[in-house]
Amino acid sequence: MVTARAAMLFGPGEDFKIETVEIDGPGAGEVLIDVRACGLCHSDEHVRTGDMPLPHYPVICGHEGAGEVVEVGPGVTAVRPGDHVALSFVPSCGACPLCRTGRAFLCNEGAKLFNVGMMTDGRIAHRVGGEPAARYAQLGAFSERQLLAESSVVRIDPDVPWTVAALVSCGVATGFGSAVHRAEVKPGDAVAVLGIGGIGASAVQGARIAGARQIFAVDPVEFKREQALRFGATHAFASLDEAAEEIRRLTAGAMCDSVICTFSVMRSELLEPALGLTGKDGTCVITAVAPAKQRQVDVNLFTFAMLNKQIRGCLYGSQSPRVAIPRLLDLYRAGTLKIDELITRTYTLDQVNDGYADLEAGRILRGAIVI
């Protein structure tokens, strides 16, 4: 058994608290790592606000992480002590029908993501004050050390900076894939990205790299609009209404081939305006997380059908993490994909609440905890 300091939530609406967690050693198919960096993704904020209620508290949050392998359990073959790894909130067992058909982002092991026990055998391996502690998405990367299933780590080259490895494990992969894989952006396309955080900025980059001719970014925060232009957007607008008028003019009424929704929270009232930006035979991709209790959305179904539009959900950029992470790091090394520039500020583990306050206030594009 080892101990580690970790940022935990004890219920919705509360701040993160630093507690000492007891963690078992690795069992079969498990990996113990020293966490080196973790991104401040908005998904963890959804847990804190209650938009994404969890079945068990307390919970160690954090799911966009990277670290060094300390110890491995019996049967582990993908990594060994000393290896550097990116964490993946999407597990890849490699054996289920979805993994075998190239859709590892929908791996059946994902059904266990919010279990309290380990993904491997269901046992309680994390405790705080003698009580079971859950880990968000079976990762819990806001921790100095963490015990994970082998299926949740992807080995990376040791020259990759920790913060880069952390961000590519979730936000960069999700945003980039939303444009390249789910929206299927093609050379010459007109694309709108709605909401410019770490995921939205990565969607802008994906659209740019895919060859989009026009990339329209929409965000009410001036700093984020400036960053969108830095990452490849051709135009930036402060509101959906402003965007609709200008995009209609700039596209001679054709509107966008694809619209990618990367809002901080996907409210139901945002879908119809997003579809309004979507042109004939266009695709509207929903990447942003909606409140779990939201059940209804109003859509003009007549226009939707008559203009042959599509609405597509998107998890992890609709790509396998074991394929996406190495490819994206290759693009980073080549200077094609900007990741260092996404990180506005770094924080210590004790500053996690400050980081999310900065995120909520629009002062950062992406923050990272460095441990």
From TrEMBL:
Top-rank taxon, per record: Bacteria
UniProt keyword annotation of Cell inner membrane present: no
Keywords carried by this UniProt record: Metal-binding, NAD, Oxidoreductase, Zinc
Pfam families: ADH_N, ADH_zinc_N
GO CC entries: cytosol
Enzyme class at the top of the EC tree: oxidoreductase
Enoyl reductase (ER) domain: residues covered: 11-371
GO molecular function: S-(hydroxymethyl)glutathione dehydrogenase [NAD(P)+] activity; zinc ion binding
GO biological process: formaldehyde catabolic process
Cofactor(s) recorded in Swiss-Prot or TrEMBL: Zn(2+)
Enzyme Commission number(s) from the entry: 1.1.99.36
InterPro entries with a match to the protein in the record: ADH-like_C, ADH-like_N, ADH_Zn_actinomycetes, ADH_Zn_CS, ER, GroES-like_sf, NAD(P)-bd_dom_sf
Membrane-spanning intervals of the chain: none
Similarity field: Belongs to the zinc-containing alcohol dehydrogenase family.
PROSITE patterns, sorted: ADH_ZINC (PS00059)
Protein name per its UniProtKB record: NDMA-dependent alcohol dehydrogenase
Claim: Metal-binding is one of the keywords in the record: yes
NCBIfam families, sorted: Rxyl_3153
